[in-house]
């Protein structure tokens, strides 16, 4: 079973629906929260995509992208959707504290759920197929190089936040509410992962060329 044709179109359609549900912020009948439903759909889409890739015989990957590259592209898409969702809701964090700002609190919970879901999916799949999918020296070198880009991006994001807060006059920090600062730290984490997956995908792509 491969991610192609109708299957690929279905995965893309569900991912698009998940992004719309996350950004729309509207309630559904019977009290369902579109944000939580979007988180569930996005996590489910990522899990199904990775699972189907692991089901494909290794012989079918010959002449195509490596399994590690597929994982990098899926992770890149997952993080890109998460960041798009965060940026669309950024204005909500400029208000009161999270416990007095229900809208921002809901977005923060959904962001944390997205990160936890992706971490759990990655760890479960890694342990489930440990030893079943071999890695060569190229895969390890790419993973190490991509991890370096991810750490660098995370470090840059945290330093940028610290410098902005430390060197800006207090009169210009009205936007820096506790909710905003905490959300920026979560964004820095997502930014680091996004750069790591992007670097991994580019490394694989350049290696194939």
Kindly summarize this structure in a few lines.
With 209 residues, the protein is mainly alpha-helical.
Strand-helix topology:
Elements: H1 6-24, H2 34-55, H3 67-88, H4 102-128, H5 137-167, H6 178-208
Helix pairs in contact: 1-2, 2-3, 2-4, 3-4, 3-6, 4-6, 5-6
- Estimate what percentage of residues fall within beta strands: under 5%
* Amount of helix: over 70%
**SSE ordering:** HHHHHH
Quickly count the helices. 6
Distance between the ends:
27 Å
- Give average pLDDT, whole number: 76
Shape: flat
What would you report as the Rg, rounded to the nearest angstrom? 19 Å
- Biggest pleated-sheet summary: none
In total, the number of strands is: 0
Give the uncertain stretches in residue-range form.
27-31
Indicate the structural class: mainly alpha
